[in-house]
Inverse folding.
């Protein structure tokens, strides 16, 4: 007997508004459809009406977890457009915050993975220790989520000796705890039994379906924008690209934990080699007509911003390609022939951030794969038409 | 006098009142312990250290709106919670806590009551299955099939391991089995492997992590209970608490020497021994992650069932040696 189970857009497993409709045969998934478009916010259109500086704060609000990623990606693009070079110290602080953000995002993911696998103790412990890095971010920027540290041409806040000491001390605790989680996450039998072999994505498929970030690296492809196309000061910082070759959720967990340990090394290097000098340069109000692509390695993978200027103080076009969007195709591949029990894990393993990915509206009919654009007025007509003939029922019918 | 005694037995101890308060206490104990093991506070607000929290939850749920889905089997959907609670409460009466005498089998303590108790503990599984199935919700249906699938895994090793001490004590009466191990404490040590296997199986029967598969919230929302709300959900939650106490009581009777000493010492014995079993169950819950339903089956048939059979054979062999 096969039937369809709707998972999302409102579902305890997926805290983000995305619909997955899985066709199951008993406990085994035969088909999976993604339904997008529940969270369209019109950020890109809004960006065209704001000045270069105002847009930093708008970009930051694309996402609540990798807020710094979007802001930095945007700021780097604008700096290229305006042809200004931020001072070294400013870049160091900017990268420091982005590595701290990677740490907090990966710890958050580890906890979520534990929760999805029903390992709530792991979840509670990881999230307790995540507070340490949240505190560090708060000491640096004054905020826990939207750090607002970026400015065009540098950063807004400097670091002093006391803060550096505090960060280095906290880092030691984080290092020890992460080593413990590495041991726990890769040896606890019931946890490993849930992760190993789940959501298989071969190396060829990962490349073909354009997966990014830890999802790609867990399939054994050492691809990282920080190494391949170093931005800011990543060419001076020693670090390794972490990969795993098990191609499953366990591999994605291992990659993220390894990246945590690499991030600690990067943070330590940045703090110990922090150059003296100013933290920012003054930026012009306008940018010459030009266009630019900015790449950035967010915790979830490669983040791309395309910015076009027309000589005014506002961008003419701003297009964001968030890493989650790039991973959707691979997710469908991973879900097929898995168990229902593995849907949350597989989905969580790409670390989905729907609010990052959803800004464009194109309605894709999942059954016929036809794409169509629906105007607001026709949507309204449709809703009026369907509502007219329906009496209100207490129980909604299952949308099968 | 005998009537009064029976009435006390049914209503006060270990009857309904005691069951209600002790099972809510057991839930608080389990929740608090689980929380402390996870570096959380657990319930703190209602009563001293939050001890009244399960009762507050119960009252709150009783006063909530109670919805029956249109497409559900209404009669079944309504009857099941009360039916389930009645069944597990009846199981409590079979535990040899107070009103029994070893020489004179009575209505609640007779030869073969261990089999009846095991049977009564099997029924909640079917109640959960029927509850999920009669809701006609997709998540409930998947949960219901998972309940039954798991049953085929843990039931056989549970029966084998619980009956192992009975074989050694050559009795099918709970009170006599407990008395046997009180007189021969050394022989109780032989049952330790069976005790561990029985703990794992009871964890599966109670559907707690790592076996909380039928209501895995991250996969199938509320599972079997997705459509239940209000009074019915309250009764189901109470039923699960009572089931926890009865299952812990069963393990304490057959493996830990029962609850001797009449009314008060027997009560203290009961509380200490069941809390010990619940402690072990909570420890298991806090240190594992949920496994898949197919892994439950392979775990039971690859490891638990063969080990239980070996244990039974060893016990039969030893019994031949000592007699």
């Amino acid at each position: 007997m096969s039937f369809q189970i709707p998972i999302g857009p409102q579902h305890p497993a997926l805290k983000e508004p995305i619909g997955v409709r899985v066709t199951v045969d008993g406990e085994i998934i035969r088909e999976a459809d993604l339904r997008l478009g529940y969270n369209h916010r019109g950020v890109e259109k809004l960006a065209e009406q704001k000045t270069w500086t105002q847009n930093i704060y708008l970009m930051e609000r694309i996402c609540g977890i990798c807020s710094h990623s979007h802001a930095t990606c945007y700021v780097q693009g604008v700096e290229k457009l305006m042809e200004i070079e931020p001072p070294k110290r400013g870049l160091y602080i900017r990268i420091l915050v982005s590595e701290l953000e990677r740490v907090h995002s990966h710890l958050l993911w580890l906890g979520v993975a534990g929760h999805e696998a029903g390992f709530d103790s792991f979840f509670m412990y990881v999230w307790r220790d995540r507070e340490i890095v949240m505190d560090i971010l708060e000491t640096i920027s004054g905020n826990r989520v939207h750090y607002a540290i970026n400015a065009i041409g540098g950063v807004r806040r400097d670091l002093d000796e006391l803060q550096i000491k505090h960060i280095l001390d906290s880092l030691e605790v984080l290092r020890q705890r992460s080593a413990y989680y590495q041991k726990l996450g890769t040896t606890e039998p019931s946890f490993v039994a849930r992760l190993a072999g789940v959501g298989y994505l071969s190396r060829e498929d990962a490349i073909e379906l354009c997966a990014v970030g830890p999802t790609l690296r867990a399939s054994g492809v050492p691809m990282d924008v920080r190494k391949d196309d170093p931005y800011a000061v990543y060419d001076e910082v020693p670090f390794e690209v972490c990969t795993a070759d098990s191609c499953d959720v366990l591999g994605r967990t291992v990659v993220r934990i390894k990246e945590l340990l690499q991030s600690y090394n990067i943070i330590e290097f940045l703090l110990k080699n922090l150059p003296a000098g100013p933290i920012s340069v003054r930026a012009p109000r306008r940018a010459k007509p030009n266009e630019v692509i900015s790449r950035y390695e967010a915790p979830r993978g490669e983040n791309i911003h395309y910015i076009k200027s027309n000589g005014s103080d506002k961008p003419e076009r701003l297009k964001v390609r968030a890493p989650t969007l790039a991973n959707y195709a691979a997710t469908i591949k991973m879900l097929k022939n898995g168990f229902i029990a593995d849907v949350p894990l597989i989905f969580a393993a790409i670390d989905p951030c729907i609010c990052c990915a959803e800004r464009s509206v194109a309605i894709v009919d999942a059954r016929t794969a036809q794409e169509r654009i629906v105007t607001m007025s026709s949507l309204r007509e449709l809703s009026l038409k369907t509502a007219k003939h329906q009496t209100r029922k207490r129980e909604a019918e299952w949308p099968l | 006098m005998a009537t009064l005694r029976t009435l006390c037995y049914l209503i006060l101890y270990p009857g309904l009142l005691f069951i209600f308060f002790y099972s809510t206490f057991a839930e608080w104990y389990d929740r608090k312990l689980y929380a402390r093991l996870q570096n959380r506070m657990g319930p703190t607000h209602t009563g001293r250290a939050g001890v009244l929290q399960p009762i507050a939850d119960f009252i709150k749920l009783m006063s909530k709106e109670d919805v029956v889905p249109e497409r559900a089997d209404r009669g079944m959907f309504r009857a099941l919670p009360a039916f389930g609670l009645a069944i597990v409460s009846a199981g409590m009466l079979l535990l040899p806590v107070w009103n029994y005498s070893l020489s004179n089998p009575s209505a609640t303590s007779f030869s073969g009551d261990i089999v009846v108790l095991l049977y009564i503990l099997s029924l909640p599984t079917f109640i959960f299955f029927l509850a999920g199935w009669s809701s006609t919700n997709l998540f409930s249906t998947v949960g219901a099939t998972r309940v039954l699938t798991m049953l085929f895994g843990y039931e056989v090793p549970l029966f084998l391991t619980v009956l192992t001490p009975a074989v050694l004590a050559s009795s099918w009466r709970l009170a006599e089995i407990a008395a046997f191990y009180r007189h021969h404490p050394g022989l109780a040590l032989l049952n330790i492997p069976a005790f561990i296997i029985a703990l794992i199986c009871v964890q599966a029967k109670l559907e707690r992590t790592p076996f909380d598969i039928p209501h895995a919230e991250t996969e199938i929302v509320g599972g079997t209970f997705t459509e239940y709300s209000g009074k019915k959900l309250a009764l189901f939650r109470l039923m699960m608490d009572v089931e926890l106490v009865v299952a812990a009581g069963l393990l304490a009777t057959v493996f830990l020497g029962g609850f001797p000493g009449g009314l008060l010492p027997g009560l203290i014995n009961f509380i200490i021994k069941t809390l010990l079993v619940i402690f072990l169950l909570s420890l298991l819950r806090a240190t594992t992650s949920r496994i898949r339903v197919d892994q439950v089956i392979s775990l039971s048939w690859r490891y638990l069932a063969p080990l239980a059979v070996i244990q039974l054979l060893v016990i039969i062999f030893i019994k031949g040696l000592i007699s």
